[in-house]
């Protein structure tokens, strides 16, 4: 037993000394997860990105306050996130890429608006962002157009009131009545077009039963996690060729330690490494993708069982079917690709036609993947978990024995 | 310690090792000397358990290798011709891993590892991964891996191939030290000087057979006091006027169209007359070599070929 553990320890040590392959086995699935997350908008947390709009109000008038507060209107909250700042600080934030755009309301803006004279607002767009500054620009332009239309519609009463204010006097009751009548008259003129609007938008809400929300993390991540396990299993089963190339197998034959112990130690070491990769992926899921694992013990148990299964089966293939290292790599890589494409690691089962899902369920990874999906939804198919883990463990032991007792000594002596 | 009896190994119709027998005692260094393809490595591979013999037996430290392989291998330390190291691991980790395979561990193994690192001059680089080592350093570590568990029987398969003189001398010193400790050493080489310097006894192999065996002095005595005269060029079919004066007391070792080898006492004195005699008979000599008595001349005398042919 000590010889087996010594070899297993050596395997882990070799990977620790040369972690590149281990890193790649983890990095590829995590990179894919990141790319898919970007493509499907959001990483599980959902929602569209908002434009951050900085507002500098140099006028501080009723009208400028109205404009600034209208930017925070609930109808716009999904598009922009306004924040009042000083101009210098705002420019710094824009240059750092901490905000999408900066709107500068000039002094005298309110008076110019009420008097109907020309005025210019300044919008500074961040060079560090591409899409969000344009969203901010669109929102500001729309608001200003609405303000211009409102100003045109109520030009007469606004002029009357501002004239009184400029004279420094209080409006009389007669003047107020006249202004109210003018506003009322204008409303009556436009209400047949505005209430109800001549052009209306009918919004149809799709029932939840018809279209379930696509959960990126739940759909992709378990498959990517098992992809990492698949990579490490194939990679480590091919490692016997490296051992052979480095003369380690020949030296082992010359020692009193049996090849059975040597190979069993290698498998055990490989399983320990698969467990490390599995653990990293398990932890990365909740951290990066808001994924919630239920019944973690079942996820780990199934992950280890499928790792052991893949390691032993691929080891048998590498040892039995190939005459040289190149042929071995070609055969195992073809199988790796086939498994990746059919078992739901690259294309989620949710996006596959039913026939493909059925086929995937017959692959070792697809089968575990389906149970993972159930576990992610919070249910615990205890019977399935135990039966699957047990079956895979049994097959692993059987294939491991075939490899260690029969094929590996032949391979080492060849 | 090593007892090889009527050992034979065949591959289909090819006989790689042809009924050889020899023994190596405790503290003795036995050299198997021969050209490439003579059967040296096949013999070592059988003794180390890497190959199965077709017939014959191998006994190591009193254990028959076929019947008690585990006990026999426990007494062995093997330094293969090809490097057998883990490049990702450090020198110390390699030694610890392989030493552990022989049941060594703890303080005993640690002490032995430090001794071996000192002996092969790698103590200062013990923590570095082997992939950063030069070829010579890897060779030294390869030797140390075979010795780290303090074996009773040491098998060395051309351990100095492809290394510089300084490293070679260092390795041979380590091997001599192991023999002084009491290890039986079986050492294969095709380097004459190495065998003469290192080995207590030498078996000369050719075509799978041991064609001569003894101490270096005993083997040299087989030549007498004769030097070898090697003439190469367009030599013709026959030795011209074999009874003529310049070559009258020369022994013809071999004669071919492109090379003639003669053995003669005081070869240096005879050489000008021999050249003149052959050129006078129409031979066109391009290269001449005079070899003093030694293992190489013995090999040439026995086989008609040089070791590096």
What would you note in describing this structure?
- The complex is a heterodimer of chains A (414) and B (309).
- Chain A is elongated and about 115 Å long.
- Chain A has a 4-stranded mixed beta sheet, sandwiched between helices.
- Chain A contains 17 helices and 4 strands.
- About 2% of the residues of chain A have low confidence.
- By secondary structure, chain A is mainly α.
- The longest helix of chain A has 32 residues.
- Chain B is of the alpha/beta class and 309 residues long.
- Helices cover 34% and strands 29% of the residues of chain B.
- Chain B contains 10 helices and 14 strands.
- In chain B, strands 6-7-8-3-9-10 form a 6-stranded mixed beta sheet, sandwiched between helices. Chain B has a 4-stranded antiparallel beta sheet with strand order 2-1-4-5. Chain B has a 4-stranded antiparallel beta sheet with strand order 12-13-11-14, with helices on both faces.
- In chain B, strand 4 and strand 5 form a beta hairpin.
- In chain B, helix 3 packs across helix 4 and helix 3 packs parallel to helix 5.
- Chains A and B meet through helix 1 and helix 11 of A and helix 2 and helix 3 of B.
Keywords for this structure?
heterodimer; A: mainly alpha; 4-stranded mixed sheet; 17 helices; B: 309 residues; alpha/beta; 4-stranded antiparallel sheet; 10 helices
Topology record:
The complex is a heterodimer of chains A (414) and B (309).
Chain A: H1 2-17, H2 20-39, E1 51-57, H3 62-71, E2 80-84, H4 87-96, E3 101-105, H5 109-115, E4 122-125, H6 132-153, H7 155-167, H8 173-194, H9 216-237, H10 239-245, H11 248-253, H12 259-289, H13 296-321, H14 325-342, H15 354-361, H16 364-376, H17 382-413
Parallel strand pairs in A: 1-2, 1-3
Antiparallel strand pairs in A: 3-4
Helix pairs in contact in A: 1-12, 2-9, 2-12, 7-8, 9-12, 9-13, 9-14, 9-16, 12-13, 12-17, 13-14, 13-16, 13-17, 15-16
Chain B: E1 2-11, E2 14-24, E3 29-33, H1 40-47, E4 55-60, E5 63-64, H2 69-74, E6 76-79, H3 91-100, H4 106-119, H5 135-147, E7 153-157, H6 165-181, E8 184-189, H7 192-198, E9 201-206, E10 209-214, H8 216-221, E11 226-234, E12 251-255, E13 259-265, H9 267-280, E14 284-291, H10 295-303
Parallel strand pairs in B: 3-8, 3-9, 6-7, 7-8
Antiparallel strand pairs in B: 1-2, 1-4, 4-5, 9-10, 11-13, 11-14, 12-13
Helix pairs in contact in B: 3-4, 3-5
